[in-house]
Write a structure and sequence with these properties.
Number of helices: 9
Order of helices and strands: HHHHEHEEHEEEEEHEEEHH
Radius of gyration: 24 Å
Shape: globular
CATH architecture of the largest domain: 2-Layer Sandwich
């Protein structure tokens, strides 16, 4: 499996040369793409060099073990280090999702459960905002439709990261969040103290780095403007600042009313539209390639129930990985990393198994 490392070492050196070219830095999109690949390969090169160093030390210690007991004592620890580095390198060599380094646009929508579902959507938004803050990511609310009780019928946010390392990318961590999130608790509107079950849906799209990456013809767009409104339909704007864009070839519709400026709403709508078109194109490519990898963790079925939040038991459970913990209060405050890592690890195990089968 490690034979492929030599090709990565050569590519890494070639990228070093390319990134020293001023013309590359004059092209932000190309520079960003090359820096992401350079960071990804840097992790492989670093692990490989560490492994070579440990192997050399182990060989030397083994040769001198008979002459000096101190060298013999080093052998077990060096063998353990070698095994750990081999496993680390093996995982780094798993083909990575090319979108892992991208930022994301996330949409949280109230589902079954009426007012309680909208309140839960607001709780999920707060959870993701706190999680992003803990990761040092920047967040921006693009659009929101509030409910009468202070929840959200629909809210869209952009989440950005400054790191070039795909392993630290927003998409690498949040792509597994798409699906139906079920909540079990006593709603604020419940006077009898009965536990209700409701749900909210989460959609996650990798954001397009540059507008040119997704080609959109102006003639393919139907753009409508209208007055934005607040909870209960009450007008909050006396000008036609809200924007609805329909992409005719795909039927994708995006509406924005968060900003008071029609231009700002249109720009935000186009960001979301590009992300959705990019995601649709990727789904179609995956569907066409019958031999393409089908992740056991992230599917394109957005109706899939992925997680249950049980408030009376303070329990969080992920139905795809079997992860379960009794710290729901902490999770809702943004302590999402263990759940995210369980999804990443499970997905890696599946892809690693496929890689071994192919070899």
């Amino acid at each position: 499996m490690f034979e492929s490392v030599q090709g990565f070492l050569a590519e890494y050196e070639e990228l070093q040369v390319q990134l020293s070219d001023p013309e590359v830095h004059a092209n932000p999109a190309k520079s960003k793409k090359l820096n992401r690949r350079f960071a990804e390969l840097g992790a492989i090169v670093g692990a490989y060099n560490q492994l070579k160093t440990v192997e050399a030390d182990l060989e030397a210690a083994s040769e001198l073990a008979d002459e000096d007991p101190s060298f013999a004592a080093e052998v077990p620890a060096l063998e353990e280090s070698r095994a750990e580095l081999e496993e680390k390198l093996r995982r780094l060599l798993i083909p990575r999702d090319p979108d892992d380094g991208r930022d994301v646009i996330m949409e949280i929508k109230a589902g079954e459960g009426g007012a309680e579902s909208a309140l839960f959507a607001a709780d999920l938004l707060r959870m993701y905002l706190h999680y992003a803050e803990s990761k040092g990511w920047k967040t921006e609310i693009l659009d929101k439709t509030e409910s009468d009780l202070g929840g959200f019928k629909d809210v869209q946010i952009a989440i950005k990261n400054n790191s070039n390392d795909p392993a630290e990318g927003v998409w690498a961590h949040l792509k597994f969040e798409g699906g139906v999130h079920r909540v079990q608790r006593v709603p604020a509107t419940e006077s009898q103290g009965r536990i209700h079950t409701s749900a909210a849906g989460v959609l996650v799209f990798p954001e397009v780095d540059e507008p040119e990456e997704v080609e959109i013809q102006q003639n393919d767009l139907k753009i409508d403007v209208y007055r934005s409104s607040g909870p209960g339909g009450q007008s909050v704007n006396t000008t036609d600042s809200a924007v609805r864009i329909t992409h005719l070839p795909t039927g994708i519709v995006v509406s924005m009313q968060n900003e008071k400026s029609q231009i700002q709403n249109r720009e935000a709508a186009m960001r979301v539209l590009r992300a959705r078109i990019l995601a649709k194109q990727q789904e179609e490519l995956d569907a066409e390639a019958s031999a393409a990898r089908k992740s056991q963790i992230r599917t394109v079925d957005r109706s899939e129930r992925i997680r249950t939040y049980n408030f009376p038991e303070n329990r969080i459970a992920d139905h795809r990985t079997g992860y379960k913990a009794y710290n729901l209060d902490q999770v809702m405050d943004g302590a999402l990393e263990p759940i995210v890592q369980s999804c990443i690890s499970s997905d890696e195990e599946h892809r690693l198994a496929e890689l071994v089968e192919d070899n």
